[in-house]
Design goal:
Helix 3 (53-58) links the parallel strand 1 (45-50) and strand 2 (68-70). Helix content is 42%, strand content 9%. It is globular and about 70 Å long. It has helices spanning 3-22, 25-30, 53-58, 78-87, 136-142, 145-154, 172-181, 196-215, 229-232, 237-252, 282-299, 307-311; strands spanning 45-50, 68-70, 92-101, 219-224, 259-262. The protein has twelve helices and five strands. By secondary structure, the chain is α/β, with parallel strands linked by helices.
Length: 317
């Protein structure tokens, strides 16, 4: 057997093994946070959501009477959220509601976005121009996950070197946030100085996203999901104001008609309604989804309604 034939035979074996692995439970589990964006997405969507993990885990369209879809992933920055919205805009009806999930650090300087693998999850979902640092080499490598795992062992990936101070008794999500955002104490407002540029950039991204929604006759709704009390206890009021509410208010000054629903410290969401990190469990998901859709319908009765709907007295949810 000549060398070329041996080479081809080896490639066939590698491709077969990779194909089998891509159908394995282990591989599917590793991609569960984005796999819902790779499947068949229905047309004529009337309500959609974009945003990070709390939205992915907390919103279920089983409790919505309209045709909806959850485009949230874990994680998902504001920038990628609106890129996903644009990617699937042809599936969304005019006058549709776009739920935009806002978390405590949505406007912070997340150094993890500089990691080699941060954008990997969006290969095959978004066009190349919408993937930061896209490369054809990376795309080919991602089609061979077993080879990627081997290469990571012999050649470490570029990752952010965290400088945040993590304490041994910190909750897992607090440890994660401190590392991601290089923070020491969620009560020290002075730390915001290192995030000023990110605040400007991300408020602009949110403003541009809202403008995109309005130009395309989508109705944006800003939503802050509930947070368990143990996590809230780490935050100082002034810190949260600077990192979250001041940035939200800066955007809402430009779009004062955009609905904001704030469940951050809502007492209805008990600690037993949360599971891992700050994600709602099945009890919390039902409670949050039911209340969210109900309040959107009550407070914005014209959202998502065509003229025929209005004439018939049809409600959003």
């Amino acid at each position: 057997m000549g060398i070329p034939l041996i080479f081809i035979f080896i490639l066939i074996i590698i491709e077969t093994i990779e194909l089998c692995y891509r159908f394995s439970e282990e591989y599917r589990s590793s991609r569960k946070n984005v796999e819902h964006l790779r499947g068949k997405i229905p047309n004529g969507l009337e309500v959609v959501s974009i945003g990070s993990g709390p939205g992915m885990a907390g919103i279920s369209f089983d409790y919505c009477s309209r045709v909806g879809y959850n485009f949230c992933t874990a994680p998902q920055s504001l920038k990628y959220g609106f890129r996903i919205l644009k990617r699937f805009s042809s599936k969304i009806k005019k006058n549709a509601v776009v739920i935009i999930i806002i978390s405590p650090f949505s406007f912070g300087n997340n150094a993890n976005v500089l990691d080699d693998d941060y954008s990997d999850r969006f290969y095959g979902i978004l066009p190349a121009k919408d993937i930061d640092g896209y490369s054809l080499k990376r795309a080919l490598m991602l089609r061979h996950p077993l080879c990627m795992r081997f290469l990571k062992r012999i050649k470490p990936q570029k990752t952010h070197r965290a400088t945040g101070v993590v304490l041994s008794d910190d909750l897992p999500i607090i440890k994660s946030w401190k590392k991601q955002f290089d923070l020491v104490d969620f009560r020290d407002v002075a730390q915001s100085a290192a995030h000023k540029q990110a605040f400007r950039e991300k408020t602009e991204i949110l403003a541009m996203g809202i403008d995109y929604c309005k130009r395309n006759r989508f109705e944006p709704v800003l939503v802050i999901p509930p947070i368990p009390s143990a996590v809230r206890s780490y935050f100082g009021e002034d810190f949260l104001k600077v990192f979250l509410y001041d940035n939200l208010n800066a955007v809402r000054e430009k779009f004062d008609d955009v609905l904001l629903l704030d469940y951050y410290s809502d007492p209805e969401f008990l600690d037993e309604m949360f599971g891992e990190l700050i994600f709602l469990n099945h009890l919390g998901r039902k409670k949050f989804s039911t209340r969210l859709f109900d309040e959107v319908g009550k407070q914005a009765t014209n959202i998502g309604l065509t003229q025929d709907d209005k004439a018939m007295g049809r409600r959003l949810m």
